[in-house]
UniProtKB/TrEMBL annotation:
Domain SAM, residue spans: 26-92
Pfam families: SAM_2 (PF07647)
GO cellular component: cytoplasmic side of plasma membrane
Protein name: SAM domain-containing protein
Cross-referenced SMART domains: SAM (SM00454)
SUPFAM superfamilies (alphabetical): SAM/Pointed domain
Highest taxon in the source lineage: Eukaryota
Organism: Periophthalmus magnuspinnatus
InterPro entries registered for this protein in UniProt: Aveugle-like_SAM_dom (IPR039144), SAM (IPR001660), SAM/pointed_sf (IPR013761), SAM_domain-containing_protein (IPR052268)
One BP term from GO: cell surface receptor protein tyrosine kinase signaling pathway
Length: 111
C-alpha cells in the first residue's frame, strides 16, 4: 500500500511544480508549452508567432485582440480562442495569488 501511495505522489508532484511558477516568470518556452496544451490544433502556428514576438508569461497576460492580429493571427475565431484561454489563465493566477495571500494572513492577525 505504501508503494502505491508513493507512486500516486510522484505522479502528482510534477504538476504542482509547474503550477508553483507564477505566469509572470514564464519564459517563451513555458508559454509555448501552455499553447500546446490549450490550443493543440493550432499551437505550431501560434508558437512560431509567439517566439517571433518574444511572448513571455508577462506579455501573455497582457495580450489583446489587436496585438494578436499584429502578430499575424488573422482569423478572429483563433484570436478569440487564445484570449479566452488567457482569461482563464488570468483567473487561475488571481485565485492562486489570493490563496497565497490568505495563507500569509492566517499567520498574522490584522487589528
Amino acid at each position: 500500500k505504501s508503494q502505491l501511495d508513493l507512486v500516486s505522489m510522484e505522479k502528482k508532484t510534477p504538476g504542482h511544480v509547474k503550477l508553483s511558477k507564477p505566469v509572470a516568470l514564464w519564459t517563451v518556452q513555458d508559454v509555448c508549452k501552455w499553447l500546446k496544451k490549450h490550443c493543440p490544433n493550432q499551437h505550431q502556428i501560434y508558437s512560431d508567432a509567439f517566439k517571433q514576438h518574444d511572448i513571455t508569461g508577462r506579455a501573455l497576460m497582457r495580450l489583446t485582440d489587436r496585438k494578436l492580429e499584429r502578430m499575424g493571427i488573422i482569423q478572429e475565431a483563433q484570436r478569440q480562442h487564445i484570449l479566452q484561454q488567457v482569461l482563464q489563465l488570468r483567473v487561475r493566477e488571481e485565485v492562486r495569488t489570493l490563496q497565497l495571500l490568505t495563507q500569509g494572513t492566517t499567520q498574522h492577525t490584522f487589528h
